[in-house]
């Protein structure tokens, strides 16, 4: 199982079906904060049953060796999620994604969680490239990418459907040889 203790207060744990109530509660409390970035968080995501499906999809991704979805836990409370997805083994690359409840922002949680996933990706999985794509308006998200050493590589114009219109995505990339972490 995927479980990492980052420090005395922060832990990354693979999301499991037993976490459905916590996931739904966090998403529901932060709906207005997250809905512009998480396009799947709409009226159809309305119960712990939907959260259970979200978790199951992450577990299926893990079983298919196509990524993982882990909860970020701060002092025992679920604060957000970090994920590795869109693995292309032939090219040894994948994408990172993350979201965090509003009250947990500004504590470095996403950056610390991403460091673990980056180390895991370049170390254990032997990937060569990671990408982060984010809305150019989401300053917090692109600042995470930049603080981790990702390079802004360009903008994918109107590449993402957000509720009722297309939005651009900024692409950040990181190559294994550029990573300053502690891969193993």
Question: What structural keywords apply?
Answer:
184 residues; alpha+beta; Aminopeptidase; 8-stranded mixed sheet; 5 helices; 35% strand; globular
Give the second-level CATH assignment, the architecture. 3-Layer(aba) Sandwich
Largest sheet: 8 strands, mixed
Which structural class is indicated by helix and strand composition?
A: alpha+beta
- The proportion of strand residues reads 25-35%
Order of helices and strands: EEHHHEEEHEHEE
**Low-pLDDT residue spans:** none
For the residues shown, what is the average pLDDT? Answer: 91
Distance between the termini: 17 Å
Structure, explained:
The chain is of the alpha+beta class. Helices cover 29% and strands 35% of the residues. The chain is built from 5 helices and 8 strands; from the N terminus they run ββαααβββαβαββ. It has an 8-stranded mixed beta sheet, sandwiched between helices. A hairpin with a 2-residue loop joins β3 and β4. α1 crosses α3. The radius of gyration is 16 Å and the shape is globular. The protein starts with a strand and ends in a 9-residue tail after the last strand.
